[in-house]
Amino acid sequence: MPTYPLLAPPPLSSGSPSAHPPSIVTSLVPPMFNAQAEESPKNLILKKVMNELDRINNGMNKSITLNSPTINDLEDCCVKSALNCFQSKVLYLSVPDGKLKKLQIIISNELHKIVNRVSDCKPKELEKAQCKPCDSYKEVDSQTFVQNLKTLLQKIYASQP
Q1: Which residues pair with 94 in a beta bridge?
Q2: pLDDT tens digit string along 6-32?
Q3: Which residue segment(s) compose the domain that 116 sits in?
């Protein structure tokens, strides 16, 4: 009995070399794996909140003013404090309809999850940082408030490994 190369099928009955069907090498090659690692749950939440903020920003009343931390106001150990401030104020954004109001509640809940996942500083570092209370931040219009929150979320997202 003749032997055949591993990937070549046996010859057809006509015996001519052109009667061989083409080899299917790709069926033996394992599928390619996604080169990028899956994103962490924290990063997925960050992306979700940033997208939801865009939707809120497009439909909200922009005349409301709220206390808002900015990146320039924050020391590294005050990120959690700033997120708590944003979370407490985000429900005060003035939105015209029920869909955006629901989205506002979702954003607040997702911010709570982010706050719990942000690494906190050591107690001695927190004492030195002297994070400001939320009401001590400058009042800004609601559009600037949303932009400041997005900027902070982008900073957190960019700092992830």
Answers
A1: 61
A2: 444 444 444 444 444 444 433 343 333
A3: 41-158
On the 0-12 / 13-18 / 19+ scale of CB atoms within 10 A, 37 is: exposed
- State the pLDDT confidence band at 135, using cuts at 50, 70 and 90: very high
Residue 111, Cβ density class (10 Å: 0-12 exposed, 13-18 middle, ≥19 buried): buried
Q: CA–CA separation, 161 vs 159, rounded Å?
A: 7
In a domain, 6, yes or no: no
What pTM was estimated for this model as a whole? 0.70
> ∠ CA(97), CA(99), CA(105), 5° rounding?
105
CATH number of the domain within which 60 lies: 1.20.1250.70
Does residue 131 lie in a domain region?
yes
Domain assignment of residue 29, yes or no: no
What are the tens digits of pLDDT across the range 79-110? 889 999 999 999 999 988 888 899 999 999 99
Domain count, the chain: 1
Could you give the 3-state DSSP secondary structure of residue 147? helix
| Residue 101 belongs to a domain | yes
Cβ atoms < 10 Å from Cβ of 113: 14
